[in-house]
């Protein structure tokens, strides 16, 4: 994008098409983000007391929880459509994911992992806060390439002419992506101060949602929830939840703790091959995900990607 002056968005959101299956930059952003989480956990496993097998399990639970709940939130937000097309509920290649659902689902997956492995959940969540912020930042880059999520009209010099919107619009996903990136140095600083268990997680939840509220005021939302744009409803709920978590954490641990290394729990290894194959399969599946609210892919993207044809993957939907 030009540093000064309006930008005409003409990026192709599709990386390539393989046997009629289209691979999206948006999906790639999550594949790379999930892979980064796995590698990050591999580096941190001694500090967290995790075996290599447990790291694989944690990655799987995080990815599956994120994708499933991220998809279910989209279905809920667009229920007037999906109640007439229930068979398309799992069709992530025609409707994508919701960011708030990704966060909630990832948290559920981590809770399940910690329950199964009898692991203290606060250190695990704290360790994941930074790589998750990076996932969300990269996802916003994918959103921008996709060109589906737009802001309100603007005459500012960095306005963007998106393919499916009239006039120049705020590139709200880039604002949100930058906000997610800026969370990382804040979380790193808090970690270096010897933050008590759970404080990084609470701070991430609070800052992610609270700082997104003014950004989403500039965004056009196609659906509402509880009388507000769907994203703003989740922003407010997450912001309140983060504030409560911060308060409870501050009351329970009023002063920073010195960093300590937990004693490794020594979970058994083994089964790494099938775990690795499962992770690879999820990373590949994520590649077929476009941005949300893109039900009829050929109609929306056909003029931007000449090779995009109507196939069985993309049924014509009224």
How does this structure look, described?
With 318 residues, the chain is mostly helical. It has one domain (19-261, 270-296). It contains 11 helices and 6 strands. It has helices at 25-48, 52-77, 79-82, 92-95, 99-117, 121-146, 172-192, 199-216, 230-252, 272-286, 297-301; strands spanning 7-8, 14-18, 21-24, 160-161, 224-225, 228-229. The strands form 3 sheets. A two-stranded parallel ribbon has the order 1-4. Strands 2-3 form a two-stranded antiparallel sheet. Residues 257-268 have low confidence and may be disordered.
Overview features:
318 residues; globular; two-stranded antiparallel ribbon; 58% helix; mainly alpha
List the helices and strands and how they pair.
Layout: E1 7-8, E2 14-18, E3 21-24, H1 25-48, H2 52-77, H3 79-82, H4 92-95, H5 99-117, H6 121-146, E4 160-161, H7 172-192, H8 199-216, E5 224-225, E6 228-229, H9 230-252, H10 272-286, H11 297-301
Parallel strand pairs: 1-4
Antiparallel strand pairs: 2-3, 5-6
Helix pairs in contact: 1-2, 1-6, 1-10, 2-5, 2-10, 5-6, 6-7, 6-8, 7-8, 8-9
């Amino acid at each position: 994008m030009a540093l000064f002056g309006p930008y005409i968005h003409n990026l192709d959101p599709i990386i390539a098409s393989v046997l009629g299956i289209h691979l999206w930059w948006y999906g790639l952003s999550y594949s790379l983000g999930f892979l980064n989480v796995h590698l990050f956990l591999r580096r941190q496993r001694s500090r967290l007391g995790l075996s290599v097998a447990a790291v694989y399990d944690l990655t799987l639970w995080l990815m599956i929880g994120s994708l499933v709940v991220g998809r279910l939130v989209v279905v809920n937000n667009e229920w007037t459509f999906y109640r007439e097309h229930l068979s398309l509920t799992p069709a992530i290649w025609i409707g994508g994911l919701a960011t708030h659902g990704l966060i909630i689902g990832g948290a559920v997956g981590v809770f399940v992992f910690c329950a199964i492995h009898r692991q203290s959940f606060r250190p695990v969540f704290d360790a994941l806060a930074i790589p998750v912020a990076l996932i969300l930042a990269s996802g916003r880059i994918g959103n921008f390439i996709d060109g589906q999520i737009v802001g309100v009209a603007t005459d500012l010099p960095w306005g963007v002419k998106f393919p499916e919107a009239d006039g120049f619009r705020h590139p709200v996903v880039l604002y949100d992506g930058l906000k997610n990136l800026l969370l990382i140095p804040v979380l790193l600083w808090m970690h270096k101060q010897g933050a008590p268990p759970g404080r990084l997680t609470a701070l991430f939840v609070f800052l992610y949602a609270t700082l997104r509220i003014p950004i989403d005021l500039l965004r056009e939302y196609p659906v509402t929830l509880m009388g507000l744009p769907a994203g703003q409803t989740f922003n407010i709920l997450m912001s309140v939840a983060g504030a409560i978590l911060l308060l409870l954490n501050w009351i329970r641990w009023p002063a920073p703790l010195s960093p300590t290394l937990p004693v490794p729990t020594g979970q058994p290894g083994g089964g790494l091959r099938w775990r690795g194959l499962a992770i690879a399969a999820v990373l590949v599946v994520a590649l077929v995900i476009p941005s949300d609210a893109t039900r009829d892919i050929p109609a929306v993207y056909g003029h931007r990607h000449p090779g995009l044809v109507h196939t069985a993957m993309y049924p014509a939907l009224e």
